[in-house]
Amino acid sequence: xxxxxxxxxxxxxxxxxxxxxxxxxxxxxxxxxxxxxxxxxxxxxxxxxxxxxxxxxxxxxxxxxxxxxxxxxxxxxxxxxxxxxxxxxxxxxxxxxxxxxxxxxxxxxxxxxxxxxxxxxxxxxxxxxxxxxxxxxxxxxxxxxxxxxxxxxxxxxxxxxxxxxxxxxxxxxxxxxxxxxxxxxxxxxxxxxxxxxxxxxxxxxxxxxxxxxxxxxxxxxxxxxxxxxxxxxxxxxxxxxxxxxxxxxxxxxx
Length: 254
Ligand SMILES: Nc1ncnc2c1ncn2[C@@H]1O[C@H](COP(=O)(O)OP(=O)(O)OP(=O)(O)O)[C@@H](O)[C@H]1O
Hints:
Layout: E1 6-17, E2 20-31, E3 35-39, H1 46-53, E4 61-66, E5 69-70, H2 75-81, E6 82-84, H3 97-108, H4 114-120, H5 136-147, E7 154-158, H6 166-181, E8 185-190, H7 193-199, E9 202-207, E10 210-215, H8 217-226, H9 240-248
Parallel strand pairs: 3-8, 3-9, 6-7, 7-8
Antiparallel strand pairs: 1-2, 1-4, 4-5, 9-10
Helix pairs in contact: 3-4
The chain binds adenosine-5'-triphosphate (ATP).
Adenosine-5'-triphosphate binds at residues 17, 22, 40, 42-48.
Family: Belongs to the ABC transporter superfamily.
Keywords: ATP-binding, Nodulation, Nucleotide-binding, Transport
Protein name: ABC transporter domain-containing protein
């Protein structure tokens, strides 16, 4: 059997905010070159966990290793091999997309061609546009492009498709899959179960700071079916979203 190599190992992670325990002893591994999903309700501790792995937030206890580097002692090394989405506030309003990418590339010391980065996310036509003039889907694609500037081994995407229409979401799923296929490991958080099912190679369900299930979407669904679960309503071969996509087409246009 093929053995998978862990690129992220989280061991007994605990995060307390004063008396409140937001993350209660999480342990999981993310394999090299997979799309790994952290799923769970609001407040489950997904963003906290992600930001601790990204070395942006301190942990209370536990051990995290990212590509052989410890978050405690080698945060600097970790920062160099990961791609993180910047907050929109970091996108200086007077700069256009090309200029923003040049700026970030300069900060990273990365030798990349800004137009090629925009082509990767299909925003070449918007090269001279300002960030605030983009649609929601375009903003997300630009934000994903910025995670790729330092040619990272791992990118982290926190709810990348929230607020997007079905076409924009599917386009983004294709983009994220292409990024994985090009050799990058992707860690994503989402509330959308259809997204997790379509996109993620493996998912962890987090509830109240604990992992309550972790497997491939297929295995989790099969386990439930084998336990005797049946949907109350017969599922049709298409749903309303399929109708929408069929009526309006699939092209990038948002
Ligand atoms: N800086 C903070 N100070 C105090 N409590 C915090 C802080 N950040 C997060 N929390 C609390 O920790 C818990 C987990 O928050 P977190 O943002 O990690 O959840 P999440 O799973 O990402 O939720 P969502 O899906 O809503 O983004 C929540 O109860 C939240 O209120």
